[in-house]
Amino acid sequence: MSIKPLVILPDARLRQISRPVGAVTAEIRELADSMLETMYDAPGIGLAAVQVGVLKRLIVMDVVREEGRDGEPIIMIDPEITWSSDERSVYREGCLSIPDYQAEVERPAQVRVRYRDIHDRMQEIEAGGLLATCVQHEIDHLNGVLFIDHLSKLKRDRVMTRFNKLARLQGRAAS
């Protein structure tokens, strides 16, 4: 395992659609372990493979640490939302790929997600609260969508301007 560098806005990879994982190999298990280590080190509660530069449909999460309990990591391979509630909830979201920026985002309050686990078994969970928000945020990443896309155009444009300027100052362009 190793901590991987994070892909930061405005990197164009964040806007690409991730490919299905396919077979759960030793390489995929190692990637998931490295993603968890990277997420905990950051620290964060969720991470999509694209955020470490791998365009595969793989996400890791651990929301219970945010709630002050011992960690319960969740690894989802090729996740898909199969149902979402009409009821909405608002959470203050941040993103490891958009450091030092948070905003309130409205999403469905509950979702049902089907995915394969690290042992290649089909799983389905129904999630509410912070877990529902986190899984929607991470699946958005797999589809090239960022949480700032759920904000007004004015707020989104301000964030993009800030991160484009920062990237130029640091000598990293939107690749």
From TrEMBL:
CDD domains noted in UniProt: Pep_deformylase
UniProt EC number: 3.5.1.88
Co-factor remark: Binds 1 Fe(2+) ion.
Residues given in the record as Fe cation binding sites: C95, H137, H141
Keyword entries, A-Z: Hydrolase, Iron, Metal-binding, Protein biosynthesis
Reactions that this protein is recorded to catalyse: N-terminal N-formyl-L-methionyl-[peptide] + H2O = N-terminal L-methionyl-[peptide] + formate
One Pfam family here: Pep_deformylase
Cofactor requirements of the protein: Fe(2+)
Gene Ontology terms for molecular function: peptide deformylase activity
Source superkingdom: Bacteria
Active site: E138
SUPFAM superfamilies with a match to the protein in the record: Peptide deformylase
Protein function: Removes the formyl group from the N-terminal Met of newly synthesized proteins. Requires at least a dipeptide for an efficient rate of reaction. N-terminal L-methionine is a prerequisite for activity but the enzyme has broad specificity at other positions.
Family: Belongs to the polypeptide deformylase family.
Protein name, per record: Peptide deformylase
The organism's taxonomic lineage, starting at the top: Bacteria, Pseudomonadati, Pseudomonadota, Alphaproteobacteria, Hyphomicrobiales
Gene: def
